[in-house]
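Budget justification aside, the reviewers requested a transparent look at the raw inputs and outputs of the sequence design task funded under Objective 1. We therefore reproduce one unedited record. The lines immediately below are the structure tokens for a 387-residue chain.
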């Protein structure tokens, strides 16, 4: 039964995978409320067969609630879910075609690894010979053939995660659901296992949805990312699209690092930031509009002490939005240096810039020094103030 809501749901456009005429999972006009609290608002999304999609967002954004609705663990208040053309909107979890891996893995501690993997196959009525062959195949697939007789407590966290995956895919489900499967692991193991999961998903061709709050994890693993905030979808796109072309200030700020400055739109493709005019893409704004300008630290280009000293062979185009800056702080982060700069043209606001180790050495950038940096016109993004 549809739950009474203070805001009446209205149809919205469905986010589809580019080039896909049809979809394997189709979610239309989905809402979920708990009393007066609306956890999901007007969600419509299309996921193609074999696609790896990440639901990404901060805690409380609705991503896990959406996953549970798809799984039938927490039915939606309103809306429709189709899987492979079959309406599963009101089906119990036991009647849906999916495998799921939880954050805690939820392995049976009193069963061996082989018995854990075989559990779903036994419930499906498979023959003993078929179960044995399938368990052997899956243990080999996840690289744990020698551990079948062990119990979960005898395995590391990363190994338990792989067994949970093997159990989830044992019955060859049409949909694989992953609820923050790597969050309980240390950073190095997580990086290793996210590549293993992605490789396994590609090998199996199973449609996969993963919930995560880790931006790097989503960027590294997903074919498409669904960015959520306060129960709504902010943007859907490939990792490159989400990172390079955010549609909202929330997406720009949540995915990666940003510098943000108040700005005023000027004529002729310029904005005023601090005390100066900067070239910027202003097509969606009118002269006089106030906005928030955003540039990522990684997009800022160092030119050393004097930009005109850069050889034209190295950089044939004229530098854009060139500013003098003083290096106030430098923080070594292994792959790059994170620097904090102040610049008169920015009204003495702090500008965070990430420079490669080679650039810092070549240009002799050091704390207390003065350099020139460029903010490329196409990487200076504008968003409505307060968006």
């Amino acid at each position: 039964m549809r739950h009474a809501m203070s805001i009446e749901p209205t149809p919205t456009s469905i986010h589809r995978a580019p080039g896909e005429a049809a979809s394997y999972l189709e979610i239309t006009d989905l809402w979920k409320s708990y009393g007066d609290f609306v956890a999901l608002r007007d969600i419509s999304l299309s996921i193609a067969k074999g696609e790896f999609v990440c639901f990404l967002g901060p805690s409380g954004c609705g991503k896990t609630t959406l996953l549970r609705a798809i799984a039938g663990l927490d039915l939606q208040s309103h809306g429709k879910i189709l899987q492979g053309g079959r309406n599963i909107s009101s089906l119990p979890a036991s009647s849906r075609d999916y495998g799921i891996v939880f954050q805690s893995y939820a392995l049976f501690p009193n069963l061996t690894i082989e018995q854990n993997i075989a559990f779903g196959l036994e419930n499906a009525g498979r023959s003993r010979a078929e179960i044995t062959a399938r368990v052997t195949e899956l243990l080999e697939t996840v690289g744990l053939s020698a551990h079948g007789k062990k119990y979960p407590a005898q395995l590391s966290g990363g190994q338990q995660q792989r067994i949970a995956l093997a159990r989830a895919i044992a019955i060859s489900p049409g949909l694989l659901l992953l609820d923050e499967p790597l969050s309980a692991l240390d950073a190095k193991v997580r990086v290793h296992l996210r590549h293993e999961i992605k490789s396994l998903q590609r090998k199996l061709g199973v449609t996969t949805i993963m919930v995560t709050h880790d931006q790097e994890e989503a960027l590294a693993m997903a074919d498409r990312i669904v960015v959520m905030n306060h129960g709504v979808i902010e943007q859907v796109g490939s990792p490159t699209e989400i990172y390079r072309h955010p549609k909202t200030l929330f997406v720009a700020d949540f995915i990666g690092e940003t510098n943000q400055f108040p700005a005023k739109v000027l004529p002729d493709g310029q904005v005023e930031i601090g005390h100066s005019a900067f070239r910027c893409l202003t097509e969606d704004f009118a002269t006089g509009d106030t906005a928030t300008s955003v540039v990522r630290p990684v997009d800022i280009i160092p030119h050393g002490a004097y930009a005109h000293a850069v050889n034209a062979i190295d950089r044939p185009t004229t530098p854009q939005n060139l500013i003098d800056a003083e290096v106030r702080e430098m923080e070594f982060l292994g792959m790059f240096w994170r620097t904090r700069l102040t610049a008169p043209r920015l009204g003495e606001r702090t500008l965070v810039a990430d420079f490669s180790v080679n650039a810092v050495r070549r240009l002799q950038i050091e704390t207390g020094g003065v350099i020139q940096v460029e903010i490329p016109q196409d990487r200076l993004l504008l968003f409505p103030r307060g968006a």
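Residues 50-69+95-253 form a domain with the Rossmann fold fold (CATH 3.40.50.300). The first strand starts at residue 25 and ends at 34. Computational costs for records of this kind are itemized in the attached budget.
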